[in-house]
DNA sequence: TATGAATGAGAGTTCATTCAT
DNA sequence: TATGAATGAACTCTCATTCAT
C-alpha cells in the first residue's frame, strides 16, 4: 500500500473529478484513503489546497505531454497522428484527469490561464507560442488548409477530448457501454486521424 | 419583470451551470431571482427538485433541436451543414446549457440515459434509433466514408460542442477572449462544416 | 358542512390532541378543515390562541360534567356509580379530549390550575371545594374507608381515565384492538364500579 | 461529569419528556448537556434517532421491571403488593419516564407494540404471555374476583401510573404540590395496595 | 504521525404569520 | 370572507477545520 500522502492524492482525484471542489467531501476522501480525516489537514492544510495540488498535478501531466510533442521537429501530418495517438491513449487510461479539468474549467475558467502562466513561466514560446508558430508555418508551407491556427487547434482537441466527456450521451444514443466495446479507443484513434488528415491537410 | 417561478428557474440555471448541484447555493439563487429564499421551496419543494426541473428543461431544449432535424428527409451533406449551423448558433447563445449538462454528465452519468428513456418513451425510433438508421443508410448509399455510426456521431458532436467547454484552454493558449472575437462562431461553423465534409463524405 | 370556524375548531382538536401545540401544523389543520391557511389567522389570530380556545373548550366540557354531578346531593355509593358511568361513557366518545388534556398537562402543568381559577372563579366552593368537603363528610359518616380525600379522588380518576391513555400498552400486551372489542366500555364501567365499591366503601 | 454521550441522553430525556419529539429543540438539549450542538449529530446522527434511543432506553427500563417480577412464582396477593411497591417507587424517582412514554403513546400509538415485538422477540411467553396465563390461573384457583385479565391489568396499571400524569389536576383540585407532601408516595402505595386487595381478591 | 472528539459557520428546509388582491 | 404569494425567524443538519492526547 502506497504511503499516506500518495493515497490521499489518489482518493482526492477520484473525489474531485466526480464532485468538483464544492461537492467533494473531505470525509469521503479520508475514508477512501484509509486515513483519519485530520491527516488530510496535517498534510495539505486545507481542502482548497489539496484541490490545488491535485489539479496542478493533473494539468502538469496532461499539458506536459503536448509540450514535449510540440518541441519535436515534425510536419503537420506526423503531428496530427502522434498527437491523436498519444492523447487518446493517455486520456483513456486517465479519464479522471479529463473530468477533473473539465469541472475546473466550468467552475473556475481563469485557473487554466493561471496555470499556463506558472507552468510555462518565461518560456511561453516553448509551449503555446511555439505551437502557434508552427501552425502558421505549416499553413504558409501549404501543408494545411485551415488558415486559422485557433480553429485548427480547436478541431484537434475537440476530436481528441470530447469523447471522454460526452460518453453518457453516446452511450444513451447507442445503448452501449463504451469502455466495454472491444478495441473502441483504437477505432477512435483511426477515425480521428482519418478525419483530421482528410479534413485539414492539403 | 417575469413572474417569480420564471425568475427562479433562470437564476437557478446560472447557478447550477456554474457550480453544479453540490456547489450551488439556494441563497444565491434567491438573491439573483430577487425573491425570498423560502419561495424556492414553495415552488420547487427542494434544491434537488429545482435542479431536476432545470436540468430536464435544458435537456428538452437541447435534444429537442436535433430530434426535429433528424426527422427531416435529407442527405448526409445537408445534415452536416444544418446540424452544425443550428447547434453552434444555438449553443453560443445558451452556453449555460452546455455547462449544465456537462457538469451533470460528470456527476451523474446515468441521468442522460434516464432522460432519454423518459423523453423518447416508446418513440425511440423517432429519435436516436432514427439517426442510427440514417447513418447506416448513408453509408450503404456511399454518401459517407465512416462506416461506424458511433464514430460518425462522436465526430460531429465533438466538433460542435467541445468549443464551449474547452474555451478556457483555447483562451489560455492563444491569449484571446473567444466571445469577443468578431464573427468567431461564424468562422467556427465554417471550419467545422469544412472538416466534416472533407473528412467524412465521399 | 358546518361553518368555517366550527370546522377549524374540529380539525384543530384532532391535530392538537395528536401532536401537541409544538408538533401541530397550521397547514394541516387548514387542509383538514378545507379552508385556506390564512383564514385560521383571520378567525383566531394565532396558533397559540387557537390552541387556547380548543383547550378551554375541551376542559369546560370535561370538568363541566363533574361540576354538575358534584352539586347533586348523593351518597358515596351513588356518586361512584354515576361518576364512573358518566365519565367512561363520555370519554370513550371523546377520546381526543383526554389526549388533548394529557398532552397539555405534560407540556404545561400550570394550565389546569389557571383554568380552574378562571372557570370556577369565586365560586370555588361549588366545584373542587365542594367535592373536598363531601368526601370528608362521607368519611365522617363512615360511608368510605379511605380517609384521605386526595387518594380517594386519585383512585377514582385513575380508574376512569387511564384506560384511554394507556390503550397502546394494553393492546400490545393482549394483542387486541380495544375499540373493536364488543361491549368493552360497558365491561370497563362494571369492573371499575366494582373495584371502587369493594375497595373503598365500608 | 459524565461523558458527552451520557450527558446528551440525559438532557434529551428531560427535553423529550416535556416537549415530545416535535416540540423538542436540539439546541436546548445541547445547551443542557453542555456540548456543541453538532455533537448530537456526531453521536446520534439525527434528532429522530436520538429520540428513538432515549425512548427505547426508557421502555427497556420500565418494562424490564415487570418482566422480572412476572417471572417470579407468587400468588396474586404478593404480586399486587410487590408490583405496586416497585412501580410507584420506581416511577416516582423517574417521572420523566412516564411522561416520555405517555407522550409517545399519544403521538405514535404503534411504537409500544413495535417495541414489545423487538424486546420480547420470540420469548413473548416470558413477558406478556406469561402474565396473561398467570392471571387466568389465579382466577381459576379462586384467588381473584375479576375474570377478565384485561380489566385486571388495566386496573393495576391505572392505579400505579396515572397519578404521575394527572398530577396537575390533583394539584389544582386540592391546591397542593404533590411532590412536596411528606410521605405522599408511601401513602399512595398503601392506598393502591388496599383498594386492589379489597377490590379484586376474593 | 495518528485519532476521536469538538467547534462554528453556514447550508437547506420548515413554519407561523402577513400581504395584496 | 377568501386566496395564493410572500416573508423572516428559527430549526435541523452538514462540513471544513481544529484540539487534545
Structure description:
4 copies of one chain form a homotetramer. Chain A has 202 residues and is mostly helical. Chain A has one domain (48-200): Tetracycline Repressor, domain 2. Helices cover 78% and strands 0% of the residues of chain A. Chain A has helices spanning 4-23, 26-32, 37-44, 47-71, 76-93, 95-107, 110-120, 128-140, 149-165, 167-174, 184-200. The longest helix of chain A is centred in the N-terminal third of the chain and has 25 residues, at 47-71. Chain A is globular and about 60 Å long. Chains in contact: A-B, C-D. Chains A and B meet through helix 1, helix 6, helix 7, helix 8 and helix 9 of A and helix 1, helix 6, helix 7, helix 8 and helix 9 of B. Chain B binds a DNA duplex (21 and 21 nucleotides) through helix 3.
Question: Describe the biggest sheet of chain A?
Answer: none
- Overall pLDDT level of chain A: 92
The helix-and-strand class of chain A reads mainly alpha
> Segments of chain A where pLDDT lies below 50 for 5+ residues?
none
The CATH homologous superfamily of chain A is called Tetracycline Repressor, domain 2
CATH class of chain A equals Mainly Alpha
Quick one: how many beta strands of chain A? 0
Beta strand % of chain A? under 5%
CATH topology value of chain A: Tetracycline Repressor, domain 2
User: What percent of residues of chain A adopt helix (DSSP H or I)?
Assistant: over 70%
